[in-house]
Recover the amino acids of this structure.
């Protein structure tokens, strides 16, 4: 994604109805993420995200979450665990991600689906962060593997 999409001075145009709105949201949001002083280095330098490959996965993910399309094939939990093995994912990072995501939703959309995507993102952020923390600490809730099991799987 070489040309960040600005949402500055845009008015919300309505609710999220399908793929076109999801693409607009995801593109605008990740343009902000790439430039963010906290998140940008994690995505660009640590994860070395190939945006041309990654963005279509994110479109499919959110379409599956919101509309049950079933097109998403992936494991967000495993991706975050793998990334946490390279760079400790802090709650501050999750909070920043959520703040930018909610800000972008609010700049572009309003309505029940826009509200639902914000709730879903907040719930997922908390779950993923909690599970990453449990895995890092070797919680029995993760199967007892802890850091050694995580390192073996990575």
């Amino acid at each position: 994604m070489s040309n960040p999409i600005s949402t500055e001075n845009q008015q919300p145009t309505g609710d999220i109805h399908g793929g076109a709105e999801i693409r607009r949201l995801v593109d605008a949001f990740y343009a902000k993420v790439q430039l963010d002083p906290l998140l940008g280095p994690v995505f660009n330098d640590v994860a070395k995200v190939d945006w041309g490959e990654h963005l279509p996965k994110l479109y499919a993910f959110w379409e599956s979450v919101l509309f049950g399309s079933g097109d998403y094939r992936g494991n967000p939990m495993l991706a975050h665990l793998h990334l946490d093995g390279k760079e400790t994912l802090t709650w501050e990072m999750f909070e920043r991600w959520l703040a930018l995501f909610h800000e972008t939703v609010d700049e572009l959309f309003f309505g029940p689906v826009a509200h639902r995507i914000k709730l879903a993102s907040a719930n997922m952020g908390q779950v993923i962060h909690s599970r990453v923390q449990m895995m890092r600490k070797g919680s029995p809730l993760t199967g007892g593997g802890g850091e050694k099991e995580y390192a073996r799987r990575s």
Observations:
- The CA atoms of residues 12 and 108 lie 4 Å apart.
- The domain at 19-153 is CATH 1.10.490.10 (Globin-like).
- The helical segments are 19-35, 40-46, 51-67, 76-86, 91-108, 112-137, 146-153.
